[in-house]
């Protein structure tokens, strides 16, 4: 099944203990699309400026990603400058230049209207809601957000959350969203008024999915009580954490879209694939690693994740 | 098989967001013993003062723990005062009164000499080495330590580490011990010069075992590359984190001692039992929860851990 993703396509300038790069291709929708492209058809909606080259776009199209929804306008592309020198687990934003993103108004090409799944990457919840409304027939909607929208745009965000099949956020965001320091209580609180399922990403410690009795159409028993935790793989070099969460989302949602039905078993495997794609993303700067993978390599690491976490 | 444990038997005064308790039974050897007692025979070596009552001792003996190695001397028992009000994941030590522990010199009763396994809880590495030397015939030795010994008593500690089958420490301790911020690289560095296997505890995110080609007598293949990660269970109330790590160690080592052989499969199940016992420990203040469990309850939670983390 096809996935439509809306979010940022951008340039990133990043410094980590392993080096620095300037104006490399980035953005949540880019990482998500590349990651999901190993599993299913992906269509992207976003906006870029005149500095976005044919070669930049080819990074996406080479992976079979449909970029007809990528609007090219006058001006410069969104540019994020960040540092991981102080803390490899949390980006310090040095500069955010929204540029063409400031006036972004998502338009959905007619060719995208039959998309099966929708991913609302981390952007203004007003835009997320806008796209959601334009895609009334999608089978499943997942979304991401961040502290800024939780803190300063709560009312708008709440309208998006209530329509999500799954929300993917990290520990800090979940605690902030719920106003609750205990993760399980926070998860219960978020699910009570928002998404059917909540996935909380723990960085190097993996991710946990919290289910509700609305999570699955045909299988309700037992899932309210037991969350599901996917591991992450200990890596001896985290070169650049940028895009790990979006790559997780792409692996998770891409795998789920490739399955005939979103059963609990498929959902759990999707969590593992999310972890797998996140673990690849951080091995090189920017999207470099996400461009060059093979499904064989991905499945080998999936087996590695299983070996890492399963009893015999 | 029987386990001999040497470590602190103490009183704790604790405050957490859930309340406060004064002078409750605690200490690493106490938590370890209670936890391991659900799996195998446990013998304890430690020292207590005149304030240690018959009822305190009965907490151990009721669980079948052999306390003949618990020395009673004049003075007060070790007393630790700590707070989790600032951070539930890390104790803030308010006061450490060593009391009778200051002059503790472990003596091993003749009846303990045939112990099969040895656990060196977090005490002065000089005492750990002393006990280790008195027990040359044990089949397996595991140990714990903490920042203070790593930082200020490194040479003594190194002598202990090199003789360990497994070292159990937390993330911060592993990074400090290796002088390395990446956990996998830290683990490799520690294993290169010390214990055969390293277990790093991640608190609410579980624990990871890092193996070496010395970890298992008869099965070497593949284990050098793939660590093993046991989950922790999301809990909606962490009442008191004190003793979680020692209870993990007791579940891990106790289960391993109950098995005919320390195979990789048994070792991995032991990691899960460690997580299970740690998850129980934090549900009530002090050792309360560890006193009242049943093996049935423990095995039910073991299944819960499996459901939480296993693909179908």
What does this structure look like?
Two copies of one chain form a homodimer. Chain A is an alpha/beta fold. Chain A is built from eleven helices and 13 strands. A nine-stranded mixed β-sheet of chain A has the order 5-4-1-8-9-10-11-12-13, with helices on both faces. A four-stranded mixed β-sheet of chain A has the order 3-2-6-7. In chain A, a hairpin with a 2-residue loop joins strand 2 and strand 3. In chain A, helix 6 (171-178) packs across helix 7, helix 8 (244-257) packs antiparallel against helix 9 (264-281) and helix 9 (264-281) packs across helix 11.
Separation of termini of chain A? 33 Å
Question: What is the total tally of β strands of chain A?
Answer: 13
Structural class of chain A: alpha/beta
Order of helices and strands of chain A: EEEHEHEEEEHEHHEHHEEEHHHH
**Strand percentage of chain A:** 15-25%
Low-confidence stretches of chain A: none
Count of separate DSSP helical elements of chain A = 11
Oligomeric form of this entry? homodimer
> Would you tell me the overall average pLDDT of chain A?
95
User: Over all CA atoms, what is the radius of gyration of chain A?
Assistant: 18 Å
Specify which chain pair forms the largest interface: A-B, 38 and 38 residues
How is the main sheet of chain A built?
9 strands, mixed
């Amino acid at each position: 099944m096809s996935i439509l993703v809306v979010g940022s396509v951008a340039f990133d300038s990043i410094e980590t203990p392993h080096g620095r790069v300037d104006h490399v291709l980035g953005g949540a929708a880019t990482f998500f699309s590349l990651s999901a492209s190993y599993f299913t058809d992906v269509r992207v909606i976003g906006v870029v400026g005149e500095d976005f080259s044919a070669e930049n776009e080819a990074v996406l199209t080479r992976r079979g990603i449909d970029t007809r929804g990528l609007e090219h306008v006058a001006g410069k592309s969104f540019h994020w400058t960040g540092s991981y020198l102080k803390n490899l687990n949390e980006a310090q934003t040095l500069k955010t230049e929204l540029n063409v993103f400031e006036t972004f108004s998502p338009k959905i090409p007619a060719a995208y209207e039959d998309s099966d799944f929708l991913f609302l990457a981390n952007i203004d919840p007003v835009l997320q809601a806008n796209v959601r409304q334009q895609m009334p027939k999608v089978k499943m909607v997942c979304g991401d957000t961040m502290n800024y929208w939780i803190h300063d745009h709560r009312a708008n965000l709440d309208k998006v959350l209530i329509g999500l099949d799954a929300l993917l956020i990290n520990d800090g965001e979940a605690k902030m969203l719920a106003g609750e320091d205990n993760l399980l209580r926070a998860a219960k609180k978020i699910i009570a008024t928002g998404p059917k399922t909540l996935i909380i990403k723990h960085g190097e410690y993996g991710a946990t999915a919290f289910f509700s009795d609305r999570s699955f159409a045909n299988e309700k028993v037992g899932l309210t009580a037991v969350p599901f935790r996917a591991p992450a793989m200990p890596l001896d070099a985290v070169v650049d954490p940028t895009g790990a969460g979006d790559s997780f989302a792409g692996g998770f949602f891409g795998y789920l879209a490739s399955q005939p039905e979103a059963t609990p078993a498929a959902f759990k495997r999707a969590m593992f694939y999310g972890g797998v794609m996140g673990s690849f993303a951080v091995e090189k700067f920017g999207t470099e690693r996400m461009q060059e993978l093979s499904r064989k390599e991905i499945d080998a690491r999936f087996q590695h994740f299983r070996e890492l976490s399963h009893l015999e």
